[in-house]
């Protein structure tokens, strides 16, 4: 093993170059501080998992909302946030304060701050996490999901540019392949970090890289910011933290984030005095499909579904009210985990797939990511599914297409785990749903909600198919999709105050140590509480990274 020459010094050390880390570094460099950023991955991964995201951002009373006829305000948003979060612990004191501060940010300067940096938004506002439990229950009362023009890379771009400009000017240093194993403390204060230098890797973005150690390093800094992400790429940690309230952890899960999202900095921060809270709060999806063209091990893609598909558990039983596609992520996860099976099913039609299936991820939305307006018009408004969705119809092992319901059910039963499916029950559910939709009146709450949602222009234009029978031949062949649990976000993390200062077990700030992004539960150790409203993960990285960078620079 060789040793890196000497000890580097900086005013501020940022550990992790995801969105929160880039924002923090850009803010600190802008304040005139000398900054070093370290990350265990090759530089191809600059931007972290935010680069892979759909780019959704939560805004309150935006011009885009007003143009779509949406009436929103901070009081309604606060009702939704706190009704969704369900804060109920002593440890929620700082997360509550972060939630209030973030709401003020989302209703205030967030959009203008991003617009100043060149970030734009798709004009149609999406309606995620619709809830369905009543005004005080979880969910968004109105559409608030603003898709960034350029998706995840479009959010990352201005902060990456700011960091690279500071690097060019000699005010900032980026050190790839530097894995932190220890935070250095002196007289109770964190004064930097030590770790291992990993061998150079030519791995492309997201692809697992070598862990061969070729040296070590030490960096001394006046302030250290931990922005190392969550645990979604580490199934061992996910299962260890899995809460009893969500049933048993799945035996088989897909992975919605690259393998480097491994939670390795949690114990390192804890050893330096940081208090970790709300580790049992997590955000995983149940609409995961196996990527036919994977980038990382176990790579799963999430379907962002519209509301029309019939959702069945592994036995063929329809999911209860209001667990419809796009309504309640964790409520659906909790229900399905208690069935004893790791998968569920959509039964739908090609027409619904064409109109309502979007895929999460920047690489699955080339029109939005590439800011390609002609492609967007062809893919979103023309007849037929988008090219990425068509690729899954053609190659995805979880997709089955058939003109005949009985044949479709037989093929569903042939897939692994399909023997749990009760064919008669599936047939009964499909036929009963089709009877209800033939009438303008219905007792079926999903159909009633579907018709109600089409009153919103955005849903009618690009997110909901015209209501029809599943066995309507004019709607195209039937489609069945086998769905899996897919790991994604940690909702808990390092406890911080509103200046992103890391707190110890006694509630005191650890001198010299800050945390931001998913490592801090997107702020405070869990700004979302038990559940999220969507569009709030990237936003939490932006806000907490900004707070950490500015406070560390002071």
TrEMBL record:
Pfam families: FAD_binding_2. The keyword Magnesium does not apply. The keyword Oxidoreductase applies. Keywords: Flavoprotein, Oxidoreductase. Signal peptide: none annotated. Residues 11-538 form the FAD-dependent oxidoreductase 2 FAD-binding domain. It comes from the Bacteria. One of its GO terms (molecular function) is steroid dehydrogenase activity, acting on the CH-CH group of donors. InterPro entries: FAD-dep_OxRdtase_2_FAD-bd, FAD/NAD-bd_sf, KsdD_DH, Succ_DH/fumarate_Rdtase_cat_sf. PANTHER family: 3-KETOSTEROID-DELTA-1-DEHYDROGENASE, KSDD-LIKE STEROID DEHYDROGENASE RV0785. This is FAD-dependent oxidoreductase 2 FAD-binding domain-containing protein. It comes from Microbacterium pseudoresistens.
